[in-house]
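pasting for ref
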Amino acid sequence: MMVFAVELHRGATLTRSESATLTRGFNRIASAQPVILFIKQGAELALSTCERSEYT
């Protein structure tokens, strides 16, 4: 399992869709392992996960 962390600039926010896109990007980097991404937005901390699965 790979764990990544991202801190956004002050005042910046991500939508749920943007967060998912970012997580999928990190998932491509760690091609052999599932990914957990922590996103710090001001005083809030979001958690996003992505697992690998076989394409059939």
